Amino acid sequence: MKIVAISGSVRKESYNSALLRAACDLAEAPMRLELYQQLVTLPAFDPALTEQLVPDAVVEFRSLLAASDGIIICTPEYAHGVPGALKNALDWLVDCADLVLKPAAVMSVATSGLGGVRSFCPMVQVLSAMNWQVVIEASLQVPFAKRRFDDELQLRDELTRQRLSIALSALARVVMELR
User: How far is Cα 163 from Cα 152, in angstroms, rounded to an integer?
Assistant: First the structure.
């Protein structure tokens, strides 16, 4: 079971990327997570491009997601919404028929007590508009990130580890049901 995990943050020291690395460690067979770390390589979305002119980086991105069994998007909150690099990536996917009903989990980590709710909610709306199957039981918001991760960005909070493990299991159940 191949799950592609995408961090909406392009920062090297990102709590959202750190949560996805922890998810990779916690994922149990048959689930295997693959981190997509090329968000910054995707060019600005251009709806005027015909399918033959879509940049190679976008073609590879679409193919990676289409070949997956599910997707996890973990996004920070930026200016009360979804970061631009992530929104740009999603714009390239709007018309991908291969992603219709693709199981997806939305996660967000924030230093505030809100847990990134102002990016979490719009992300669920965007993915739903794209006809992805957002698995709410597999979705997660993590507030007060500085309390959950150590200085090396390792997830140290046991409750968050348990919640992440439960989220991964929920996503795996949905993927198995679709097989």
Answer: 21
Q: Which residue type, as a one-letter code, is found at position 138?
A: A
Closest C-alpha to 153, from 118, 119, 111: 111
Contact 94, 126 (CB under 8 A): no
Peptide bond into 30 cis (omega under 30): yes
* Distance, CA of 83 to CA of 105 (rounded, Å): 17
In the chain, domain spans: 2-178
Taking only the tens place, the pLDDT of each residue in 117-172 is 999 999 999 999 999 999 999 999 999 999 999 999 999 999 999 999 999 999 99
Nearest by Cα to 105 from 143, 142, 68, 73? 73
pLDDT digits (tens, 9 = 90+) for 62-112: 999 999 999 999 999 999 899 999 999 999 999 999 999 999 999 999 999
Residue among 44, 42, 23, 43 nearest 34 (CA): 23
2-178 maps to CATH 3.40.50.12280: no
